[in-house]
Amino acid sequence: MDVASPPRVRDVVRAEVTKALTHPVTAPAVLGALAVNTALAVIVTSDVVRLGTGGEPVSLEAFPGLLVAPVYLLLIAVATVAGSEHTTGQHRVTLTVVPRRGRLAVAQLLALVAVSTPAALLALAPARLVLARQDGPGLADGALDVGRWVLAYVLLSVVAYGLTSVVRSATTALGVLAALPVLVATGALPWPRVVRFLPHEAATAVTGVADGAVTALTSGVAVLVLGGWAVLAAAAHTASLLHREA
Q: How many separate domains does the chain show?
């Protein structure tokens, strides 16, 4: 009797990409991030909105965390897609079709990158183009700017995916990820030289919007820090998949 061969990695990746793209939350999240990013870029370039900080109102450019905040719309999609695997029972079905859990973990992470990269580019490109028209950088500088932002979005997506996989709850994962920058912004975590290594703060440094801040990481170090968080999250996702019951 012929035994069906396990699906190839590329077939599993294709199936995972399809699940992510067809999930009801994905398109609204990407379009929402696109709209908010573009609106923020228009506000920054026109300088029609200023916020008070105890003295003279300043441009939104003075609030790097606010400029990076639209990424959380994409993280909602990432966490919701990952969390729905467990809340809907799809996780058990997937393990039945792909019993080799190591192969499944690799395929899921590849699919995540395959979806989050173009999604981040779509959400960011128009806004970065608006800002580039004001700043007038060269083509190479403009491409580097977009690349830094996309990298930050993708690495944060891996962090969100891995955390959701471990806690098996989109709400809990998003709560943790969103609470940390709020606590930092409100001064509830008064250790600037420590909190700069948190994912959101590292992502802010990767994009370059935190340049000039006394405690901000350099972009190169920030890439390593955020990449380290992403590797840790990917490892946690893999370990959870390998060693926990469905």
A: 1
Give the length of the chain. Answer: 246
Alpha-carbon gap, residue 118 to 56, rounded angstroms: 39
How far is CA 28 from each of CA 23, 42, 77, 123, 201, rounded to the nearest angstrom? Answer: 10, 21, 9, 11, 26
Q: Enter the tokens of residue 144.
A: 């580097």
Residue 1 domain-assigned (yes or no): no
Per the domain annotation, does 4 fall within a domain?
no
Asked if residue 52 has pLDDT above 70, the reply is no
Mean pLDDT of the chain: 83
> Considering the domain boundaries, does residue 171 fall inside one?
yes
Q: Write down the residue that tokens 């300088």 correspond to.
A: 47
* Residues paired with residue 164 on neighbouring β-strands, in sequence order: none
Output the CA–CA distances (angstroms, integers) from residue 153 to 18, 53, 122, 145, 198, in the order listed: 20, 28, 11, 13, 14
| Structural domain includes residue 3 | no
Q: Contact, 162 vs 184, CB < 8 A? A: no
Which residue type, as a one-letter code, is found at position 246?
A
| Nearest 10 degrees: Cα torsion 182, 145, 77, 170 | -40
State the pTM of this model: 0.85
Range of the domain at 65: 9-243
- Percent of the chain at pLDDT > 90 equals 38
Fill in the DSSP letter of residue 122. Answer: H
Residue that is written with structure tokens 């968080």 in the block: 229
For residue 171, which phi and psi values (nearest 5 degrees)?
Answer: -60, -45
d(CA 232, CA 200) in angstroms, rounded, equals 15
